[in-house]
Design brief:
This protein is α+β, with helices and mostly antiparallel strands and 90 residues long. It has helices at 3-17, 19-24, 46-57; strands at 29-33, 36-39, 60-63, 66-69, 75-76, 84-85. The strands form three sheets. It has a two-stranded antiparallel ribbon with strand order 1-2. Strands 3-4 form a two-stranded antiparallel sheet. The protein has a two-stranded antiparallel sheet with strand order 5-6. Helix 1 (3-17) packs across helix 3 (46-57). It starts with a helix and ends in a 5-residue tail after the last strand.
Length: 90
């Protein structure tokens, strides 16, 4: 049960350490909810920053000698009820 929150915390740290994200200063994490991070960024920056956020969050994980990556996604919307998955070009 702790694998995903641990990976999220590592991804959160990678986001914080990412020079591009830090320079833009627009992706603060507001909350961690077990299997998700909640944050915000200006709509005009999403195409540029979303791929960087996903790269920070998709951390290779070795299980029984086999490496895998748990995929991440980004959902956007004005509130939690009205979220839609963002299609991210990488």
């Amino acid at each position: 049960q702790s694998t995903i929150p641990s990976l999220l915390n590592r991804g959160w740290l990678r986001m914080y350490e990412n020079e591009m994200l830090r320079e833009c200063g627009v992706v603060p994490v507001l909350n961690q909810v077990h299997d998700s991070l909640v944050g915000h960024m200006p709509e005009k920056m999403m195409d540029k920053l979303a791929p960087i956020v996903l790269d920070c969050l998709e951390i290779p994980l070795t299980i029984n000698g086999r490496q895998t990556v748990i995929p991440a996604s980004i959902e956007v919307g004005p509130n939690w009820k009205d979220l839609t998955r963002l299609k991210v070009e990488r």
